[in-house]
Amino acid sequence: MDNTTLPLHLSHVQKSSSIINRSHTLLHSAALIALIFYRIASFFQTAKPSNLPTTFSCLLVFTGELILSFMWFLGQAYRFRPVYRTVFPERLPENAELPAVDVFICTADPSKEPTLEVMNTVISAIALDYPPDKLHVYLSDDGGCSVTLEAMKEAWRFAKGSWVPFCWAYGIKTRCPEAYFLGEEGNNESSSGSEFLADREKVKEKYENFKSRVMRIRQNSTIIVNRDHTAVVEVINDVSIDEASQEDKVEEMPLLVYVSREKRPSLPHHFKAGALNLRVSALISNSPYILVLDCDMYCNDPTSARQAMCFHLDPKISPSLGFVQFPQKFHNISKTDVYDSQLRYFFKVLWQGMDGLQGPIVSGTGFYIKREALYANPIKDVDVMELKQYFGPSNEFIKSFGRHYKPKDHQHSSSVGFLYLSVVEDYFTSLVNMHCKGWKSVYCDPVRPAFLGAGTTNLNDVLVQSTRWSSGSVEVALSRFCPLIYGPKKMSALQTMCYGELAFYPFYFLPLWCFATIPQLCLLNGIAVYPEDVFCKRKLFCVGCDPENDIAKCYGSGIGPVAFWGNVTVASNCFFMVFSFVFLSSLSKHIQEVLSTGGSMRSWINEQRIWMIKSVTCYLYGSLDAIMKRLGMKEANFMPTNKVMDVEQTRLYQTGKIDFQTSIMLLAPLVILTIINVVSFVGGVTRAMVTGKFSDMFIQVFLSLFIVTMGYPVIEGMILRKDKGRIPPSVTILSVLVSMIFLSLGSLVLNV
């Protein structure tokens, strides 16, 4: 059969997952309605001036429950119609008919983004399995460092002279040289024989020489991230006619361009969004499709461009298709993954769910986007007046490729390109410039990862990164582009819910702070904020007495203090079952999703723990940061994640231990809440047993125990560990003092 009649891709709805998800949604919704009914009914029963502390405590807990219920409701949109896709790149047309692709690689700071790692990403992009005359690679250096430029020239020489010809000759799958020489190339029929082994050794030797030259450049240069410099644009692979005539054979290679845009302290540069909005590629190559990569995210599958074209060249979906998103996957994830660095929930659950609607959001890296979708209208002819409108007021295009212009002078950040309102420019651009304008996207998750990067391996980087993401999400939620307000008329209801959940995700800090403090404080003071245990009311009975009598009556009658703890089965409050079902239903669904996506029970525990840690720290600080910026009290800032590997941090990560070397501002909330729950659990259980109110306090006791169990690594870090990653004693002492003050003042208020 002719390839032109065969589909380039197939979409498969995950029917079993969809049935499970919808059934769970129905049951969980019924339980939440019953829970809300109970709270409202009990509020009117207990709302008395004499019962103000209990009423106020229950009201705070109910507020947290409402927020969690609202977030859960928004999240059900992802689970309505999850899909996965299969591509057939072998059915694509001939190379001559394939469209051109521009590759944007973004870097900012060589001190945090190792130069050799960046060059490996550049080389892997140059070596993509795509027609070289239709591939153009741009490295955007926001740091303006000469080290990066010089290293790029070395990378070009190595790629052109050794690496790319070697990959083409033997069909090498792993096109990142560092990854290739560290691992084993498998499933390559052509990668055998003495000739291959000899060539491999030659290329390896040249790669070692290349590494040495790059390291020498770093050692001989002072790395200074320049925030005040002119634009630099340099085409690395320029070969003069004389040089070309002297060569026996000039291999055709992709275009390689170094770009460092103009930056001035007095003008906002808009971080990554500003770097991606440069005019350089539009004037040099102007390819219809763009691949965006982070500097540490190398091309692991050389056929990724062809896989993306299976969607972009499909006449049925191409007119409305804005971009193809590949998942972010990482080569340094440990078996335990204590920080959930693989972001399983997003790339295995959420994005597959959105793919069944209008498609996933732009995820920062690893996406092939249509230039027409990004810039609103295609610019086919280089016309001065038209380019002024789209790319800034200048008639000297070549000289102004990287020049900075104020936003009011051109349409970037307002209607075209990557938008500037939020530091999460990918999410914001997806919302406003893609899906709300009718574009769709697809999610392609092949068996072999298309791109591999370096995941975060220490708590500090995880929390700093999540704080930045949280701040950007809340910025959008508080703006006129709030998805729940801006989206309903422009997107489907389910797609709007997906965007809404991502925008409001940081607000998880509100219910988690509430559930980690209020029930515990009430537990210590004998105040019940949940229904009593429906199965078992444990009371202190005297031997030989009527079960309806308690120990006090026996003392009054002169009977000795021989007593025991007994069980009385009652059915006094069926709403205990409702709260239990909601809790167990949520955990069970999470476990099911983790196990069905290849995780383990240990993965589930780690995901629960890091979600709780993020909620009470970076989600809180990110939300406050966004509110302060909204009020004009703070300027936006960006700190790239440190990608330099620390030996001790890597060792702790690989052994499954949390590295608590982070700022006291991020660490103190974890320690304080853990101490509060330990004290509340011990004191609350003791009080409940003595007063015979264990059934009334059962849920609060269990909640404290659950938090203490999840917080065990914090307890271990305070008391048991002696390594560098332990919690400093000064933080522990300070946290104990704050915890005692909170519990004392709280008890005083509750007993007024």
Automatic annotation (TrEMBL):
Mn(2+) binds at residues 272, 294. It is a multi-pass membrane protein. Coiled coil: none annotated. The chain crosses the membrane at residues 26-44, 56-75, 562-584, 664-685, 697-715, 727-750. GO terms for molecular function: cellulose synthase (UDP-forming) activity. InterPro entries: Cellulose_synth, Nucleotide-diphossugar_trans. UDP-alpha-D-glucose binds at residues 112-113, 142. It comes from the Eukaryota. One of its GO terms (cellular component) is endomembrane system. It is found in: Endomembrane system. GO terms for biological process: cell wall organization; cellulose biosynthetic process. The active site is at residues 142, 426. The keyword Phosphoprotein does not apply. The keyword Membrane applies. Keywords: Cell wall biogenesis/degradation, Glycosyltransferase, Membrane, Transferase, Transmembrane, Transmembrane helix. This is Cellulose synthase-like protein G2. The lineage of its organism: Eukaryota, Viridiplantae, Streptophyta, Embryophyta, Tracheophyta.
